[in-house]
């Protein structure tokens, strides 16, 4: 008789409890004394105020303009936000961006070095900038703003070079994407009115009805002669001017050859395994033949133009990957887990009209705001590598829609991985930098010997969101293509790309959902895909993220001998600590013990603050031994688990950067005697625009796997110890576990 499988253990939240932990803020000596700070900054503010006063009146809505505050690199954390200074100066922080600077002085040992920091965009009346500049020499220690003065490294007025990105094309009159700050004055609507008037005074016609408003930013298109771009950039609340990107190429990466011939296939003669399970795919459309099956439904949004045959090929292939994964000659197609709603968002105008990508994004936004999907795939997007200093409209819109954590969204990272790495042209493409979605790269094989597919874009992502792609999945290559349905649905045709890796990864998540029903949240399924990914010691995390997605459902949902995998799902309250025990059996263990932990959450984002993009973060403290304490300590001694160096090997980021990632994943080995009722203390912290704030509760998921190869009955012993708390999550539908 076959052994009963050891399924995932659920109800991990029953082990958790709130805990009080006092953490005093670490005090830092100021790098500058008050007199030193005044001497440094007074002339900087004076020069900037003079520059802002010289701007055209039309460029300053209601007399307001924007300056740039560069924070000292040692004072970028939210607790050091210079709120008192800004209030007394009558300035308001309306956004920020990551930057690098070499401070004049610092309190570390050695000479100051170039270090990561933050630049704040601050809005104020021009006369207030001038007033504060003149008042700096008279500040004393009794003035609240004097306590913040040393936190500022410099202050300046923005220049064209701060706002205008290099244009790649040599078009005389390019279509531009303009990004505006839309807060910081009593009547924010005046900013858009003033920009439209200012642009028209230059002879330009901004297309206001095609704009996207997200949080404190507005993204809008305008066509401008190259010689007027610097003039346009003088508008005070303008953040960025960049070239409007085109669509990622959707042409096949490989073609049929003698070794990769198409072959006939027959669709399953059945309904989807779970008729209630639906996924949304946004792409180039599907064929009529696929639409006429029980597995996919074609949707054409209102106003969409005629379909393009090449786009329909791509959309049909992507949908095939969601339904069947890679098709293998000689093996019957698997029964799909659910149904795909395919929304065609590309038409014959997409490649010709640069505004069509805005229309595609608008179609996607309208669908996601009107219909609720638990599974979404995007294998399309702008042909644009991500940037460290600005968030694109696609990313901002998607993160806003996905912030509730109720959807598993997979996004292809793009196929430009063979471009120059040093220049950033091979970097993951927009919108795969979304922190509330899962960025998927491509592996070149399904076998045990695999690598990153050469075409698959690489990381790093932007911080937060540094690990991009988070995982890779099989996407095919010339010697091992990814076979998908053609438009007839009777032929499997070869191709390759992250376009197929992404929906294949989504399919694995849908399989978990079909297997376990509502027992696992979307965040838990996302955590599971990351948690069970296969790492590689030979490949950089920036190439493959945390590893290759598991090749079969067994690896996700069944615990082998010597392993126990526990799922925690719950809610975190801002500012409070949640004590989360790691389940170990009673008694002693033999040999080495490996702990693997993966946290996932979703949160609201601030696209106007790329360096402070996520509003939520986790500060996780690991305590391996319940009986080992530091002297006079209330809680057991801590040991590093999730480390900054996991995200930042070159120490290019701020010290607290890793605490604001929406996914944390790590594996560590321990001698069994060093573990005694280990725990994670989880502190959920919130911020808004980089400063402390009051936030809402958020949902989280945590997966912990305990592995002790010499303890074959580990699972049973853990179940026995926690029999009133942990329970196996039993399948609601028996899924044929054959995904390869």
UniProtKB/TrEMBL annotation:
<dbReference type="InterPro" id="IPR034074">
    <property type="entry name" value="Y4bN_pept_dom"/>
</dbReference>
<protein>
    <recommendedName>
        <fullName>Peptidase S8/S53 domain-containing protein</fullName>
    </recommendedName>
</protein>
<dbReference type="Pfam" id="PF00082">
    <property type="entry name" value="Peptidase_S8"/>
</dbReference>
<feature type="domain" description="Peptidase S8/S53">
    <location>
        <begin position="309"/>
        <end position="547"/>
    </location>
</feature>
<dbReference type="InterPro" id="IPR000209">
    <property type="entry name" value="Peptidase_S8/S53_dom"/>
</dbReference>
<dbReference type="GO" id="GO:0004252">
    <property type="term" value="F:serine-type endopeptidase activity"/>
</dbReference>
<dbReference type="GO" id="GO:0006508">
    <property type="term" value="P:proteolysis"/>
</dbReference>
<feature type="compositionally biased region" description="Basic and acidic residues">
    <location>
        <begin position="102"/>
        <end position="111"/>
    </location>
</feature>
<dbReference type="InterPro" id="IPR036852">
    <property type="entry name" value="Peptidase_S8/S53_dom_sf"/>
</dbReference>
<feature type="region of interest" description="Disordered">
    <location>
        <begin position="96"/>
        <end position="116"/>
    </location>
</feature>
């Amino acid at each position: 008789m076959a052994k009963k499988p050891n399924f995932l253990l659920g109800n991990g939240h029953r082990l958790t409890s709130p805990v009080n932990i006092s953490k005093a803020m670490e005090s830092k000596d100021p790098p500058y004394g008050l007199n030193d700070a005044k001497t440094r900054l007074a002339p900087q503010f004076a020069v900037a105020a003079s520059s802002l006063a010289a701007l055209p009146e039309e460029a300053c809505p209601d007399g307001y303009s924007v300056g740039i505050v560069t924070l000292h690199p040692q004072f970028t954390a939210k607790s050091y936000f210079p709120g008192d200074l800004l209030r007394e100066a009558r300035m308001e922080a309306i956004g920020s961006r990551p930057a690098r600077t070499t401070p004049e002085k610092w309190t570390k040992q050695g000479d100051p070095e170039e270090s990561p920091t933050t630049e704040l965009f601050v809005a104020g009346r021009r006369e207030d900038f001038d007033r504060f500049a003149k008042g700096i020499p008279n500040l004393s220690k009794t003035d609240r703003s004097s306590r913040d003065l040393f936190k500022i490294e410099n202050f300046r007025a923005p220049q064209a070079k701060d706002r205008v990105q290099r244009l790649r094309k040599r078009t005389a009159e390019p279509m531009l994407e303009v990004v505006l700050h839309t807060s910081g004055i009593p009547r924010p609507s005046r900013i858009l009115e003033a920009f439209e008037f200012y642009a028209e005074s230059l002879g330009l016609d901004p297309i206001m009805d095609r704009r996207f408003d997200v949080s404190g930013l507005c993204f809008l298109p305008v066509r401008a002669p190259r010689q007027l771009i610097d003039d346009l950039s003088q508008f005070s609340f303008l953040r960025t001017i960049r070239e409007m990107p085109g669509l990622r190429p959707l042409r096949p990466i490989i073609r049929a050859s003698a070794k990769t011939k198409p072959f006939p296939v027959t669709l399953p003669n059945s309904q989807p395994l779970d008729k209630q399970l639906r996924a949304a795919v946004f792409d180039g459309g599907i064929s009529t033949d696929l639409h006429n099956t029980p597995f996919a439904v074609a949707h054409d949004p209102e106003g969409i133009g005629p379909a393009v045959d090449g786009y329909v090929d791509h959309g049909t292939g992507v949908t095939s990957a969601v339904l069947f994964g890679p098709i293998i000659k000689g093996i019957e197609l698997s029964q799909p887990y659910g149904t795909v709603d395919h929304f065609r968002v590309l038409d014959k105008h997409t490649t010709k009209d640069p505004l069509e990508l805005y229309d595609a994004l608008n179609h996607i936004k309208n669908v996601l705001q009107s219909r609720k999907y638990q599974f979404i795939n995007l294998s399309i997007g702008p042909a644009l590598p991500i940037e460290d200093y600005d968030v694109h409209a696609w990313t901002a819109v998607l993160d806003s829609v996905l912030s509730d954590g109720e959807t598993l969204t997979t996004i292809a990272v793009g196929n430009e991985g063979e471009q120059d790495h040093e220049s950033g042209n091979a970097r993951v493409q927009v919108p795969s930098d979304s922190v509330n979605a899962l960025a998927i790269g491509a592996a070149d094989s399904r076998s045990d010997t695999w690598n990153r597919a050469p075409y698959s874009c690489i990381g790093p992502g932007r911080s937060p969101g540094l690990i991009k792609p988070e995982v890779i999945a099989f996407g095919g290559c010339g010697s091992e293509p990814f076979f998908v349905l053609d438009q007839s649905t009777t032929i499997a045709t070869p191709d390759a790309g992250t376009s197929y890796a992404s929906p294949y990864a989504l399919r694995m998540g849908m399989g978990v959902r079909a297997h376990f029903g509502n027992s696992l949240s979307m965040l838990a399924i996302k955590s599971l895909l990351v948690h069970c990914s296969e790492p590689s010691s030979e490949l950089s995390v920036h190439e493959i993220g945390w590893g290759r997605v598991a090749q079969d459902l067994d690896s996700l949902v069944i615990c082998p001998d010597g392993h126990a995998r526990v799922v925690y799902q719950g809610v975190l309250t801002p500012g409070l600590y949640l004590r989360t025990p790691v389940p170990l059996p009673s008694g002693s263990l033999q040999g080495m013990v490996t702990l693997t932990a993966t946290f996932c959450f979703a949160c609201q984002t601030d696209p106007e603050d790329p360096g402070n993009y996520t509003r939520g973060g986790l500060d996780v403290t690991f305590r391996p031994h319940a009986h080992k304490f530091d002297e006079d300590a209330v809680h057991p001694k801590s040991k590093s688990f999730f480390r900054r160096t996991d995200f930042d090997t070159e120490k290019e980021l701020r010290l607290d950067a890793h605490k604001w990632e929406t996914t944390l994943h790590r594996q560590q080995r321990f001698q069994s005697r060093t573990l005694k009722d280990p725990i994670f203390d989880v502190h959920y912290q919130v911020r808004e625009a980089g400063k402390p704030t009051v936030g809402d509760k958020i949902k989280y998921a945590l997966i912990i796997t305990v592995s002790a190869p010499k303890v074959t009955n580990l699972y049973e012993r853990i179940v026995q110890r926690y029999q009133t708390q942990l329970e196996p999550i039993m399948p609601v539908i028996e899924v044929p576990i054959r995904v390869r």
